[in-house]
Amino acid sequence: GRPMLSAGMMDRAKRNARYNVGSLIDYVAGGAKIVGLEPSCILSFRDDYKDLLPGVSGVNAVADSTMLIDEFVTYAREKDGATLKFRRPPGKVLFHGHCHQKALGLVPPARTLLERIPAVEVVDLDAGCCGMAGSFGYAHEHFELSRQIGERRLLPVARTLAPDEVLVASGVSCRHQVLDLAGVSARHPAELLASLLAPV
Predict the structure, then answer these.
(1) Please, are residues 175 and 188 in contact by the beta-carbon 8 Å criterion?
(2) One-letter-per-residue 3-state SS of 11-65
(3) Distance between alpha carbon 126 and the CA centroid of its chain, in Å?
(4) Alpha-carbon distance 132 to 66, whole Å?
(5) What pLDDT does residue 82 have?
(6) Which of 1, 8, 109 shows the shortest CA–CA distance to 59?
(7) Contact of 129 with 149, CB cutoff 8 Å
(8) CB contact at 8 A, 52 and 15
(9) Rounded Cα gap, residues 129 and 154, in angstroms
(10) How far is CA 101 from CA 43, 104, 164, 169, in A?
């Protein structure tokens, strides 16, 4: 429902949220976790749905059972003793958190997970917004402003990556901005982790 909310489609976002809560509540009641990759979308379950559907049965249970994949990996490690074994990592991971992730204080869990990769240095770029802001930067009238925001820090860093460095960004719009304006493929944290896992 996040794209609907961004476009001001409140009624459609509410219908969508109600449908999702109704579809997921039985799984949540059985102990399932709702895990997602894209911060703005999965965090809507946790944040926006409470505002869209105040008092609706199940909305709090769904919100409380929703987490980003980096939170889930940490949860599985701490609750169930899950372990990850890694191959040789890059020397440095430059991490760009998604704005929604930052707004809800969820950059530290993502950074902590990346820091569990042995012998890797993790740098939080603290670059502010990438400038794309969902679909904002794709609008012709916003393009130049979007580009200028990205050029404040994120795009120059992307253009100067060393061979042993990798840029990691949780948001799909952030990764598109970097690819489109800097010609660099940033990776989702889950992609990086998957690429470094040692064979079982």
Answers:
(1) yes
(2) HHHHHHHHHHHHHHHHHHHCCCCEEECCHHHHHHHHCHHHHHCCCCCCHHHHHHC
(3) 15
(4) 25
(5) 82
(6) 1
(7) yes
(8) no
(9) 9
(10) 8, 5, 26, 11
Instruction: For residue 106, give both structure tokens.
Output: 């969820």
Which residues of the chain have a pLDDT value below 50? none
Instruction: Give how far Cα 164 sits from Cα of 64, 89, 152, 160, 198, Å.
Output: 38, 9, 23, 11, 19
Strands 66-68 and 34-36: what pairing?
parallel
Contact 120, 89 (CB under 8 A): yes
Contact (Cβ atoms closer than 8 angstroms) between residue 74 and residue 109: yes
Structure tokens at 40: 């703005």
Q: What is the pTM of this model?
A: 0.87
d(CA 122, CA 99): 19
Q: Which of 96, 12, 22, 29 has the alpha carbon at shortest distance from 64?
A: 29
**CA angle at residue 24 from 19 to 26, to 5 degrees?**
125
Res 200: pLDDT: 66
